[in-house]
Design goal:
The complex is a heterodimer of chains A (200) and B (90). Chain A is an alpha+beta fold and 200 residues long. Chain A has a single domain, classed as Rossmann fold. Helix content of chain A is 30%, strand content 30%. In chain A, helix 2 crosses helix 6 and helix 4 packs antiparallel against helix 5. In chain A, 46% of the residues are buried. Chain B is an alpha+beta fold. Chain B is built from 3 helices and 5 strands. In chain B, the strands form 2 sheets. A 3-stranded antiparallel sheet of chain B has the order 2-3-4. A two-stranded antiparallel sheet of chain B has the order 1-5. In chain B, helix 1 crosses helix 2. The model of chain B has no long low-confidence stretch (mean pLDDT 92). Classes of the chains: A alpha+beta (200), B alpha+beta (90). Chains A and B meet through helix 4 and helix 5 of A and strand 2, strand 3 and strand 4 of B.
Amino acid sequence: MRHVTDDPAQAALARVRGAVLIHASACAHKGKAVLLAGRPGTGKTTIAARLVQQGLRYYADDCAVVDRRSLALVGFAVPMRVKPDSVSLLEPWGTRLVPGARVGDVTPIAPGRAALPRGRARIAAIVFPRFRSAARCRLAPCSKAQALTLLLELAYEATPARASAFRALSRLVRRASCHTLEFGDVDEAASAVSELIGSG
Amino acid sequence: MMDARPRSDLLSTELDGETVVYDPRANCAVWLNPVASLVWHRMSGGASAAEIAASVQQCTADPPPIAQIEIDVRRLIDQMRDLDLLQCAM
């Protein structure tokens, strides 16, 4: 499992009672959310940013907060941390994303007012993206067991009550559609993902 | 009887014929395919390797000889032991 970083916001979230914290970005459309779960470098932030530009609401980047009882996605709209290679892909920014000054190796991107989370969202789809340069976009179903195994690997170490988190994630994969996504083009990836939650 | 069974402190769930076994202490998950799931669940009931092999044979289209299946079952059990998923039976 991943470790909670030194980021004080994430450290604080790790202590939230009743939450499962997953290394994922998340967006929603009309109350239906998609989790983009994966390790750094898989492209989840870039896809999420593009989805926000296309009209989805932004719920999380890097640390998605899932209520353990209701399995709803809780908004945690801290600025996205976009790497240099992705910045040019996302320009022009439009009004839904507001870039800040680059800090070290990342550019913080805040959601615009219209992109902020609105209430909790039902997680309808879980996607495990993997960026490969020049790869054709390929969205494929993955088994519920594979999805659960991956989510457990991506849950934050500091998630309290691991047994309870396991049961919650087991319920989550049963009710959500689960997919792997290999992609080389962010627009193709965003289109494929948005169709999963009916916003394509 | 088997000389080992799944550890009682592990959590597991079956999903569409596959199983995920989770060790909350080690924070580690193992994904079992349908055949491994069958082995896992039969082991939980205390079945012997020969009994498990017979179950696998019944569930397999065009199965190999039972002796080969039993060898494979024992190999799989060894892997589970290496992954620290098993405990010695009382």
